[in-house]
Design a protein that fits this description.
The complex is a heterodimer of chains A (489) and B (249).
Chain A (H helix, E strand, L loop, with lengths): L2 H6 L2 H67 L6 E5 L5 E4 L1 E4 L8 E9 L9 E9 L5 E7 L1 H51 L15 H50 L4 H33 L7 E4 H18 L3 E6 L3 E4 L1 H18 L14 H4 L1 E9 L2 E7 L7 H7 L18 H11 L3 E6 L4 E8 L2 H10 L9
Parallel strand pairs in A: 8-10
Antiparallel strand pairs in A: 1-2, 1-6, 3-4, 4-5, 5-6, 7-9, 10-11, 11-13, 12-13
Chain B lengths: L1 H17 L6 E5 L3 H13 L3 E5 L2 H10 L4 E5 L7 H10 L6 E5 L4 H9 L4 E4 L4 H11 L11 E4 L2 E4 L4 E4 L2 E3 L3 H12 L5 E2 H7 L11 H13 L8 E4 L3 E4 L5
Parallel strand pairs in B: 1-2, 1-3, 3-4, 4-5
Antiparallel strand pairs in B: 6-7, 7-8, 8-9, 10-12, 11-12
Helix pairs in contact in B: 3-4
The chains are: A alpha+beta (489), B alpha/beta (249).
């Protein structure tokens, strides 16, 4: 596309054209109204003066007869800038006046008419003037014509037409010029943006759109696009991090698996040895499958695909169910798992929320044992120290599902890090697990519009899924207790 | 490697199923030749008869004409996909139990599969022992005492109406969940029940716990029903799951 083609295709230029047309129409109608009104005013003025003069002359004729009439007419016709006068006999013979010729038939009809005429003193000029004349019959059959030249009106009209032409020209020139100016300015900025986006598409994710200082709509757009690019870059970085981690966390067990198989193959062992090697291989691959499943689940929760399977339920039931499932495991580990519930209505994917809570409980069972060194310092009794509490309750517009332990907790600086995929804080590297538990819980919370919060239990960790409560119940509760702030969830 | 590993599992669990001395006729509808052959061979090794269909149309016509105990259907098949195959079978009144195999293992895919008329759903990759246990539970011939009011294995008795459990003359006190666990095991007495099957059917969870929750529940149950008795009834089937049965090993 040529530069000019690009220019006239811009929205700014097209808008200019539309405005140009609108302004031209406006100017034309304004001038038209003005011209028409002026014409009417002039015509009115003429009729008034001619009527007045006609009255005067009729009076003179009545008082002084034909002689007086002719005298007065001749007298008045000689004045500079005089009106038009003509007196004819009943047979049409001109008796007095300054009109040389008239369009035929004008004198025959009484009343107002517009006609072409020539003055007596300009018979040789080829062009006719136009005049507005009034013809009346005098008592004796004589006819009297009084009129006024319309040159003035015509000239005025001409001026208006000329003004219209000029203003149209000015409007078009200024409009087109302004349009091109604006369009080029916009085009330059758009071209700059296009250039940047092309660089970004080519792979340079660090590129950002130029933002001017005027704060206009293009700047706002550029700012928003930049924010979007920021987010995309962060996501890409995250993705890269995740694939690095996948490579690490899946390749390590895969290598182990392969080594074991190779070793078993190389060594000529007994059947029992082969068998145990194969059993460990299956165990290892089951672990890999679990990791894959967890990854898929997170991806699904994060992309919002799991949103289809949502229904209404009470988070307290979920908490009780999970407590019931894990209580024996906790007890085997020398801990107690308690549950505290109050009604906590949710709308969500029950399966996913159960799994998220199960992950938090599994974490607490795995890592929630007090460190031997700090045990004597802990405020509670030893039994308290080994206690894990699941709690489900409603707090304002949120449902809180929390798991509290008395283990070493997670240092504040590490908390946001701990939610990331595949992160196992150093202390826990030796424990089995994919390192995806907290990430899945966090992804599930975000799918439901909430978040996973990690807090301090002094000592220990409180992991809380904070999820917006079901709204219909929320509204009803808020209506009953006005001091509860009503929030749209 | 995969095949060898699978066969190791097969020999483990074959002790359990061949003890039944009952054969099933299975139809496997799966387009991946290698895994289909593996399944056919593995099922034959444990004494079942397995036919094979390589695409949806062939599978449908075989399923309609043959008298099968269980159909094992892959979800994604050439010519006609698994769900539509099940749908048209069900429309024609064919009620043969169907187990769906799918690489799509997520919760809503499972629900979709069961809504389409499937009876069970197993995500790939699976352990053959898991598939075998599920197929045997699905099978009509192995259906066992489906909806009876009381179950009996050896001298262990469970009354579903009064929620009483007794071993010989001793009355046993079980927690509600322990009762449901025992109820499920006894309903499928003589059949291998996997950990996932227990988690799905007794707890109604479809996720995969990282810890051995089920084993701990089973060992609690075992301490209540088998401790102090000469003949154990609740057996661990290595590499597969659990089985309640009178007089094995």
């Amino acid at each position: 596309m040529t530069a000019f083609g690009k220019l006239i295709r811009t929205t700014a230029f097209r808008l200019t054209l539309v405005y140009l047309l609108l302004f031209a129409l406006f100017a034309a109608s304004l001038l038209g109204y003005f011209a028409w009104n002026t014409r009417r005013l002039i015509t009115e003025q003429i009729t008034t003066t001619v009527n007045a003069e006609a009255g005067e002359i009729s009076e003179i004729y009545a008082r002084r007869g034909l002689r007086g009439l002719v005298f007065t007419i001749e007298n008045r016709a000689l004045r500079p800038g005089a009106n038009l006068y003509l007196v004819t006999t009943p047979t049409g013979q001109a008796v007095a006046g300054n009109v040389g010729s008239l369009a035929p038939g004008v004198m025959a009809t009484s009343g107002w008419s517009e006609t072409a005429y020539r003055r007596l003193d300009e018979q040789d000029i080829p062009r006719d003037h136009r005049a507005l004349v009034r013809v009346s019959e005098l008592s004796s059959g004589f006819r009297l014509l009084i009129g006024r030249d319309l040159e003035e009106r015509r000239r005025l009209f001409g001026i208006v037409v000329k003004a219209a032409q000029w203003s149209l020209l000015v409007v078009v020139v200024l409009g087109l010029g302004g349009g091109i100016f604006v369009a080029r300015r916009v085009l330059r900025r758009i071209d700059a943006m296009t250039g940047t986006t092309q660089r970004i598409m080519a792979g340079d994710l660090t590129g950002r759109l130029p933002v001017g200082r005027s704060g206009d709509e293009l700047d706002r757009l550029a700012e928003n696009l930049n924010a979007m690019l920021e987010r995309i870059e962060a996501l890409m970085m995250g993705l890269k991090q995740v694939s690095d981690n996948i490579a690490h966390d899946l390749k390590t067990p895969l290598t182990r698996l392969r080594n074991r198989a190779e070793e078993a193959l190389a060594k000529s062992g007994s059947e029992a040895e082969y068998r145990s090697a194969l059993e460990r291989t299956i165990e290892e691959s089951d672990g890999l499958i679990r990791t894959f499943n967890a990854l898929l689940m997170i991806a699904r929760a994060e992309s919002g695909q799991a949103r289809g399977n949502m229904d209404d339920f009470d988070a307290a039931d979920v908490a009780r169910g999970i407590q019931e499932l894990y209580e024996p495991v906790a007890e085997d580990g020398g801990m107690t798992l308690r549950v505290k519930t109050s009604p906590a209505p949710l709308h969500g994917n029950r399966e996913l929320i159960s799994q998220a809570l199960a992950n938090l409980v599994e974490n607490a069972i795995k890592y929630g044992r007090p460190l031997p060194s700090i045990q004597p310092l802990s405020a509670g009794t030893a039994a308290d120290g080994y206690e894990i509490v699941i709690e489900a309750r409603r707090d304002g517009a949120c449902v809180l599902l929390s798991v509290t332990d008395h283990g070493p907790g997670i240092p504040e600086a590490d908390r946001s890090h701990a939610v990331e995929r595949f992160v196992r804080l150093e202390a826990s590297r030796t424990q089995p697990g994919s390192g995806l538990g907290l990430s899945l819980a966090s992804a599930v919370a975000r799918l439901h519009g909430g978040e996973l919060k990690l807090g301090d239990n002094n000592p220990g960790l409180t992991a809380t899924l904070a999820i917006p409560a079901r709204t219909d119940i929320g509204d009803r509760l808020a209506a009953q207790t006005p001091d509860v702030p009503q929030k749209a969830a | 490697m995969h095949e060898d590993a699978g066969r190791a599992m097969v020999t483990e669990s074959s002790t359990a199923s061949t003890a039944n001395d009952r054969h099933m006729r299975l139809l496997i509808i799966e387009d991946d030749r290698e895994s289909a052959d593996y399944l056919v061979k593995a099922f034959r090794e444990v004494g079942h008869i397995a036919d094979l269909a390589g695409d949806g149309e062939e599978g449908l016509s075989l399923a309609e004409t043959g008298d099968y105990d269980v159909l094992v259907v892959d979800r994604m098949l050439p010519k006609r996909d698994g769900l539509s195959l099940i749908g048209s079978l069900r429309e024609k009144g064919n009620r043969t139990p169907v187990l769906i195999l799918s690489a799509l293992g997520q919760v809503d895919d499972r629900i979709k599969g069961l809504r389409a008329g499937g009876d069970d759903y197993l995500p790939k990759p699976y352990a053959f022992a898991e598939l075998l246990a599920r197929v045997e539970v699905l099978s009509r011939r192995h259906g066992g005492p489906a909806e009876e009011t009381s179950y009996r294995v050896g001298d262990l008795e469970l009354d579903r109406l009064s929620h009483r459990v007794a071993r010989g003359k001793d009355e046993l006190t079980l927690q509600p969940r322990e009762f449901r666990l025992l109820e499920y095991l006894m309903k499928h007495a003589g059949q291998v029940v996997t950990r996932t099957m227990l988690l799905e059917n007794v707890w109604d969870y479809h996720f995969d716990p990282q810890t051995n929750v089920i084993d701990v529940h089973i060992s609690r149950l075992r301490s209540k029903i088998d401790k102090g008795f000469e003949r154990p009834l609740l057996h661990t089937i290595r590499g597969a799951g659990y089985m309640i049965r009178d007089g094995i090993r």
